[in-house]
Design brief:
By secondary structure, this protein is mostly helical. The protein has helices spanning about 5-35, 35-55, 55-60, 70-90, 100-135, 145-150, 150-160, 165-190. The chain is elongated, with a radius of gyration of 20 Å. It starts with a helix and ends with a helix.
Length: about 190
């Protein structure tokens, strides 16, 4: 099982996700230690812009953007999503003063985890499964014998093939929570 695709691919992505959380804590701690906490407030705007820019991938995939390699847009989507999430995590900090922003932050972390799964695992797992099938001399689709011999690989692929069905509704709900959060901020802003 240690050589399974599940372990070989999940571990690096888990480390990337953990690095995101550690980087957010470290940056938040740095801002607190040098008395620049107020900068974190504006990281929310920057992070939201990065996340908005990451939708370029969806626009390119749906051919709303005609030019540019899809691979470039996917990489940009992943990097801008990671940076945007980092900025918003620092923005939200560890302050428990409102439910709506924390619900949006928690949902953002779930969407980020889902994105980690989708953007990398499905493609790589399918490539490796095809390679294993080719090495075994199997040219047809995955059969019962192969599923028995590579149980974890096939289970992983079947589970991850459905990630988009969960990822996109979560993204929509995150957009709704973020929009409500922004409107609430503007409503209660001290406009004097």
């Amino acid at each position: 099982m240690w050589k399974s695709l599940l372990i070989q691919r999940t571990l690096p992505l888990s480390l990337s996700y953990l690095l995101l959380i550690i980087a957010a804590i470290a940056l938040d701690y740095l801002l607190h230690s040098i008395n620049l906490v107020w900068i974190g407030r504006y990281f929310g705007i920057i992070g939201t812009l990065f996340l908005a820019l990451s939708f370029g991938y969806s626009a390119r995939k749906k051919k709303l953007i005609k030019n540019g390699a899809l691979k470039f847009f996917l990489k940009f989507h992943c990097y801008s999503g990671w940076v945007g999430t980092l900025m918003i995590l620092v923005h939200s900090g560890i302050h428990f003063n409102a439910i709506l922003p924390w619900a949006a932050t928690a949902l953002m972390m779930i969407v980020t985890a889902s994105g980690h799964v989708g953007q990398y695992l499905i493609k790589k797992l399918k490539e490796e499964m095809k390679l294993k099938m080719k090495q075994l001399g199997i040219t047809a689709s995955v059969d019962d014998e192969l599923e028995q011999r590579h149980y974890w690989d096939s289970v992983t692929i079947k589970a991850l093939d459905q990630w988009r069905g969960m990822h996109m509704p979560l993204v929509s709900f995150l957009i709704a929570l973020t929009t409500i959060h922004i409107f609430v901020i503007f409503f209660f802003w001290n406009w004097r």
